[in-house]
Amino acid sequence: MESIECPDCGCQKFYVKNPDDPYELYVFECDSGRLVFEDEAVDIDEDTEAYCDRCAWHGRYETLKPKNR
After folding, report:
1. Backbone angles phi and psi of 57, in degrees to 5
2. Between the chain's N and C termini, which has fewer beta carbons within 10 Å?
3. CA distance linking residue 53 with residue 6, whole number of Å
């Protein structure tokens, strides 16, 4: 997998919420096929709800599209 971007605004930074504490966020980018977290890394699969760091988009991780597509 290559770098990914938001399907609405093109941002390449995302976050997921901690399922036990929705106020705890894990910010990440996908660079050259690997997830790079700002702080603590968490497991993300295709069904994980991801949120764009710039706009209101959110959806399943698998719906994020490759950059420059």
Report:
1. -65, 140
2. C
3. 9
Taking alpha carbons only, the member of 66, 69, 61 closest to residue 15 is 61
* CA distance linking residue 20 with residue 6, whole number of Å: 25
The per-residue pLDDT for range 9-33, each reduced to its tens digit, is: 989 999 999 989 989 999 999 877 7
pTM summary value: 0.85
- Return the bridge partners of 16, or none: 26
